Amino acid sequence: MSLSTTLRLSILLSVGIALVSCHGNMVYPPVFQDFQNIGLNLGRAYKRHGGFIGCGRNDPSNGVDVSCVLQWYSNFTRVPAGQAMTLPENMRAFNIRQVDRRPGLNPWYAPGTAHVFTPCGAAGGNPEGCPRGHPGKNNCPGGGHSMGPSAEQYYSKRTVPVTSWARGSVQNVAFTLSANHGGGYQYRICKVPISGRGGVTEECFQKTPLEFHGSNHRIAYNADESSWKSIPARDTNVGTKPAGSTWRRNPIPACNGGAGGFFSDNSCPSGTQFPAPLPGLHGFSFTQSDVHFDKVFKFAVVDQVKVPENIEPGEYVLSWRWDNEQTPQIWNTCSAIKVTESEGGDGEGDSSGGDGEACAFKRENNIAYYNGDLLDGRKNLVDSADICEKQCSSRADCIGFSYVPNNPEMGEFSRSCWLKNNLSDKREGNGVISGVRAKCDDPDDDDDDSDDKDNEASYKKGYEDGYKEGFAEGYAKGNAEAGGDDEEVDDPEGNVLNPTKAVLT
User: Fold this and answer.
1) CA–centroid distance for 58 within its chain
2) What is residue 359's DSSP assignment?
3) What angle do CA 48, 54, 59 make, to 5 degrees?
4) Tell me, what's the pLDDT at 3?
5) What is the residue-wise DSSP string for 173-216?
């Protein structure tokens, strides 16, 4: 077999694999799917990975076969026919141009121009059927499933976290990667119409793309901002849509080769697509052999965005749009935002509620929590437990509080409000009032079982459906369109593969 044939087939094979693997999603501000209000507290997520937020609430009768946040996207989408590549060369994240050789450019080659089925992601990625126009619901060749609802519609009447942002403020936003498809992204905001969150549109989001603040990302393994590591960012406003709007390149390089490292263990023995910004920040995240998801990236990429000063206060939706380079996909996630007049730093907000009811706190009398302090309660004196609870509710990283009522005998601890991000050290506390944030339960869903076993089972269902029923057919179709054959091929990372047999067993 010639080297060119081997390379072509290995590239096609990698695309077939990449289409059904894990993906990426916003985690902060807490997203619609985040009923546990995890946000950047990645230690509370299954496997410490943000893509597993929302798992365990599958709702097949309403088209949500896999509820994990990383399963909401637009599959098989490309830039408009006839659209030339507008992406500057220095913004590419894959050093093999157009990894997927089927007709049409993948979304990142002309940022913002490719069609999305929904600005907040569709469950399963294929809401118009697979193949497109097919009326039945089924698992799709190349990944996902068909006929799933849009996130903005599905969560329009369900309880979601809400985060408050002040006009003119600078706010933290963050995403995680489950399958590193390169490309780049943008954050956008849209005012909720009279019809509610379900009425937001891509056209509305494109009217208000948010500008990035600063020229760096930060890498976060948890919500403790003091531990975040800064790395440089790379932006472009050339050839983007909306015209002149800023898009930012995904800063984590995949491994060399068309597969991006899917066949390795994220160690990238053949090097990376571009230099890694810090040791260990490279790879594909989820890999073929990682059946228990132990090697998925356990960090989030944090940026800061500017909230426009001239938008009116009210209810908004924030959308993260990630245009892929390796695959014909766009990943979208949304958060509910309340824009206020007053000054407010990052994280101030309800972090609850939405169109539904607020997330309640379970009160505990004569109980104190002794660890996980977000601030020194002696420097945060308030007049009631209700005020203390409201402070905790306004922070996405707060999961509980302990309040010491007004009592001269308590000295400097009197009226102290202690906000917590860890509740593992629970003790008796005479007179102390504590509260633990309850889950933001869906009113239409009585299943609150979200333990690790359910999370893994929930995600594995989507993973196995894609591989067992989708991969071989998806690869064969792509290979036929490109004029390939079914010979065994050598992957750039040394794997010998037969594309019609490379399915999960």
Assistant:
1) 18
2) P
3) 145
4) 28
5) EEEEESB----EEEEEEEE--TT-GGG--HHHHHH-BPPB-SSE
> At residue 453, does pLDDT exceed 60?
no
- Tens digit of each residue's pLDDT (9 = 90 or more) over 335-354: 999 999 865 444 433 433 33
- Residue 194: count other Cβ atoms within 10 Å of its Cβ: 5
Over pLDDT 90: what percentage of the chain? 49
DSSP-assigned letter for residue 403:
E
Report whether pLDDT(461) > 70: no
Is-contact 145 65, C-beta < 8 A? yes
Share of the chain above pLDDT 70, in %: 77
DSSP for 270-313 reads T-BSS--SSTT--S-BS-TT-TT--SS---EEEEEEEPPTTSPS
Q: What are phi and psi of 145, to 5 degrees?
A: -140, 165
Beta partners for residue 303, in sequence order: 173
DSSP 149: P
Rounded to the nearest 10°, the torsion over CA 204, 206, 208, 214 is 150
**Contact at 8 Å (CB) between 401 and 351?**
no
pLDDT(154) > 90 = yes
* pLDDT band at residue 501 under the 50/70/90 scheme: very low
| Backbone angle region of 87, left / alpha / beta, with phi > 0 → left and psi within -120 to 50 → alpha | beta
Of 92-101, 120-129, 314-323, give the lowest mean pLDDT range: 92-101
Note whether 57 and 445 are within 8 A (CB).
yes
The span from the CA of 13 to the CA of 472, in Å, is 10
pTM of the model: 0.71
What's the Cα-to-Cα distance from 369 to each of 119, 364, 411, 452, rounded to whole Å? Answer: 41, 10, 19, 24
DSSP 19: H
Q: Report the relative pairing of strands 145-146 and 125-126 from DSSP bridges.
A: parallel
More confident residue, 213 or 146: 213
CB 453, CB 422: distance < 8 Å: no
What is the rounded distance in angstroms from the CA atom of residue 291 to the CA atom of residue 181?
Answer: 19
Q: Which long-range contacts (CB under 8 A, 24 or more apart) does 412-415 make?
A: 412/378, 413/377, 413/378, 414/381, 415/381, 415/382, 415/383
pLDDT at 455 over 80: no
Token output for 73: 């996207």
Q: pLDDT tens, 352-374?
A: 333 433 457 888 888 999 988 98
Note the maximum CA span of the chain: 85
Contact in structure between 93 and 254 (CB atoms under 8 Å) = yes
Residue 466 has pLDDT above 80, yes or no: no
Q: CA-CA distance, 171 to 169, in Å (whole number)?
A: 6
Helix (H) or strand (E) holding 334: strand 330-340
- Do β-strands 400-403 and 330-340 pair in parallel, antiparallel, or remain unpaired? unpaired
**Residue 60 contacts residue 220 (beta carbons within 8 Å):** no
